[in-house]
Design brief:
2 copies of one chain form a homodimer. Chain A is α+β, with helices and mostly antiparallel strands. The first copy, chain A, contains 5 helices and 5 strands; from the N terminus they run H-H-H-H-E-E-E-E-H-E. The longest helix of chain A has 13 residues. The structure holds a DNA duplex (25 and 25 nucleotides).
DNA sequence: CTCTGTGCAAAGCGTTTGCAAACGA
DNA sequence: TCGTTTGCAAACGCTTTGCACAGAG
């Protein structure tokens, strides 16, 4: 379990119920779209504004303890930053799942066959999840 | 060199100068954003509409002989569909380059360590290109 | 000649911004 | 108390749509 309050404080963001709920939602569900988050928070707060979600998500991404994951043919999802990992997404139901694969070899190849300085590797597999099969 | 006219015809799209120019731009530059394409075509046509670019790009992606490439922290770029490959992008100047890396091993691992049916693999490396270093 | 595509203007949507009131520290 | 955050409404920018005219086949 993650210490949201401390994570927020460390990043000079005040601990508000809305922010805690955002972190809690991301931690519980792993990945959420913006309107997934909104639907989740509407139940907890009588009148939460979409603007609040945008502002907070932007601040959290800015401080880089939350990340946006861009998925082909789908809306972006957000997740709490954790150790490097890849993603699986279902083209049918849209669910997104983490998967950890060792990419050392692939990254090494990319480095030798290009003259880029490579800082980040972003890998997304698309297909059909077991539920939808 | 690609036979744009035939590609269009095969997909039941009429061959118009605008469409040929879009294909030509994508072929020449490899990857273009929507407004990159627009700026390119404004020079060739006295009055081309952004709506025309959107409609055509959407039709081409729909027919899947053009693809949208989603890049972390940047605008999407479009490219003509070709054999599976990965992408390199520069966080400084935004350029996008193709890179071909054998992903068999990685895909095999993903298949065994998940119960997904994996159809597509999307890999983007971010960093700094040689020009920007 | 017929049907599709283009360009324009308007509409639509997701996202951002400005501001007054509420809240956290 | 002081600076930050919230919620609302307005503004914004990107994308789509409807329609009349032009162009491809």
């Amino acid at each position: 379990m993650i210490d949201y309050k401390n994570l927020l404080k460390e990043n000079n963001l005040k601990v508000t119920p809305q922010r805690v709920a955002i972190m809690d939602g991301l931690d519980t569900y792993g990945h959420l779209t913006i309107d997934g988050l909104y639907k989740l928070l509407v139940d907890k707060f009588d009148s939460i504004s979409l603007a609040t979600i945008y502002k907070n998500l932007n601040a959290m991404v800015e401080k880089s303890f939350v990340e946006e994951v861009k998925i082909p043919n789908q809306k972006s999802v957000y997740e709490i930053s954790k150790a490097a990992h890849s993603h699986l997404t279902c083209n049918n139901c849209g669910m997104v799942e983490d998967i950890t694969i060792d990419l050392k070899t692939v990254i090494a190849k990319a480095k030798t066959s290009s003259d880029f300085q490579i800082d980040k590797t972003n890998l997304v597999f698309s297909g059909i999840c077991s539920n939808c099969k």
